UniProtKB/TrEMBL annotation:
Residue ranges, annotated region (Disordered): 20-39
GO biological process, alphabetically ordered: cellular response to calcium ion
GO MF annotation list: calcium-dependent phospholipid binding
Protein name per the record: Copine C-terminal domain-containing protein
PANTHER family in UniProt: COPINE (PTHR10857), COPINE FAMILY PROTEIN 5 (PTHR10857:SF101)
Organism: Mesorhabditis spiculigera
Length: 484
């Protein structure tokens, strides 16, 4: 699958600064992904657990028990750490610490999320505020690193002192190594509803001639009395709409949470069918029993139920039923989030294409600003995606340029002037862009269809569903092949 994003320079690259992880907080609260009001439908819940190995700090007599404190930060500011939680104290076993507590986090794809783990010696006067600055060892990582890792497991080094700047610099070797930390993520089970629909057949009427009643049903789950004193307890789960059609009522489909219907393999469900008079008076037509396991067979003879009225059954020798209810729909609904796909092995591939057609006439200062804006926008997007690409190789293309040595116009060329468009990391893209800018000349027009078709062919080769391609096109104006 391929997703194409078109970013025109005519709207100014400065608008893309809002995409930068460092500038997310500058967006209006109503639009920000950090706004708690938006998190419910833009985020996923993930729980992390912590384990320490090879802890070789010199323990004194009062350093036998430790706590794990987790903080979250959505910026590069060291003063903006927010407490997520603190574990219960655990006793050191050799060089190993295993914390049983799980720390819940809200994962947002577009959000810059730094996680800090502090391992601190425990005493009764410890507080999370003090523990932030007084720890035996600490680790800082991006939540993207964990969600993009194989098996939701991330191994990092534990250092005595660590800051955001040093932790995010992959080329810098930190001193004071005190151990290793294993971060394991877990996605809690999501609520999976089931969709059910019933229709009725020949349900009894109150009056055969002047019947103005409406028929409806209620669904109950049967629970045992926890004290064992009374009969089974009935908990109402649903009540249908009332229909004035006893011969063949077709009620609307409804949904129920799976945990309420199938928390127990043998959980009984009781369905009562009623009629309601014009004055609001209700009376039972009958009932029947079913289970989640039985309804899962779907519509058919196994799910045609006789509605039984116990009083009439005892009074009449040839009593069969008071009508029937048939299951016409039963569906298990599964919702999969972005994080579910990533954890299941979906890989994101980041491709970019740069338009060189609008560079003619740029002064030196305009060219410098254009280059700076492009690099900022490219990194703002790429830094979000790169942790989901296992090899960190990003194809980069150019179009709308005249290429040396004869300066023939081209609308599809590798930005690194190689036969392979892949650049190693975001720094590789930046280096290729600077080199290409110095070599090419601006064309009079631009066409981005060739690059789109090229990336589309790449995506079709990886049609297994485990690869998601994102092509971002940086343009300097209108192209001549919009219709394509």
């Amino acid at each position: 699958m391929a997703l194409i994003g078109l970013i025109p320079h005519s709207q100014s690259f400065s608008n893309l600064r809002k995409l930068s992880s460092k500038r997310l907080r500058k967006k209006r609260r109503s639009q920000s992904v950090t706004d708690p009001n938006n998190l419910s439908h833009m985020s996923d819940q993930i729980e992390i657990s912590i384990r320490i190995r090879d802890l070789h700090s010199a323990p004194s007599s009062n350093e036998s028990r430790f706590v794990c404190v987790v903080y979250e930060n959505d910026s590069d500011n060291e003063d903006r750490w927010n407490l997520v939680g603190c574990s219960k104290p655990v006793t050191r076993q050799g060089g190993t610490l295993k914390f049983r507590d799980k720390f819940p986090l809200r994962y947002v794809f577009e959000k810059y999320q730094l996680i800090r783990v502090n391992i601190c010696s425990y005493n009764v006067r410890s507080s999370p505020t003090r523990l932030l600055h007084k720890s035996v060892g600490a680790c800082i990582f991006k939540l993207d690193e964990l969600t993009g890792s194989f098996g939701l497991q991330l191994r990092k080094a534990l250092h005595h002192e660590v800051s955001i700047g040093t932790a995010m610099n992959a080329h810098r070797c930190l001193p004071n190594l005190v151990g290793a930390i294993m971060i394991t993520g877990c996605i809690p089970d999501k609520e999976q509803p089931i969709v059910i629909q019933f229709c009725g057949k020949s349900l009894e009427k109150k009056d055969f001639i002047w019947d103005e009643t409406a028929v409806f049903f209620r669904v109950y789950r049967i629970e045992e009395d926890p004290f064992g004193e009374d009969d089974d307890v009935r908990v109402q789960l649903y009540e249908s709409e009332a229909l004035k059609n006893h011969s063949h009522p077709q009620w609307k489909a409804f949904s129920l949470p799976t945990r309420e219907v199938a928390d127990d393999r043998n959980r009984l469900l009781e369905v009562w069918v009623y009629y309601r008079d014009v004055d609001g008076t209700e009376a039972a037509i009958g009932k029947f029993l079913t289970t989640y396991a039985k309804m899962k067979y779907g519509a058919g003879p196994d799910n045609v139920y006789n509605v039984i009225n116990e009083n009439k059954k005892q009074q009449k020798k040839k009593y069969d039923n008071s009508g029937r209810l048939e299951l016409t729909k039963f569906t298990d609904v599964s919702f999969y989030s972005f994080l579910d796909y990533i954890v299941s092995g979906t890989q994101l591939h980041f491709e970019i294409s740069v338009d060189f057609s609008g560079h003619q006439g740029f002064s030196e200062s305009q060219r410098a600003k254009y280059d700076a804006d492009f690099l900022l926008a490219m990194r703002a997007i790429g830094e979000i995606i790169r942790d989901y690409s296992p090899n960190r190789l990003f194809p980069a293309f150019g179009f709308g340029a005249k290429l040396p040595p004869i300066y023939q116009e081209s609308h599809e060329f590798c930005l690194n002037f190689s036969v392979d468009p892949a650049c190693r990391g975001l720094d590789g893209i930046a280096e290729a862009y600077r080199s290409a800018s110095a070599l090419v000349r601006s064309a009079d027009s631009a066409c981005y269809a060739p690059v789109i078709n090229y990336v589309n062919r790449i995506a079709q080769k990886n049609a297994s569903g485990l690869h998601y391609h994102i092509l971002v096109i940086f343009t300097t104006g209108r192209t001549i092949d919009d219709y394509k």
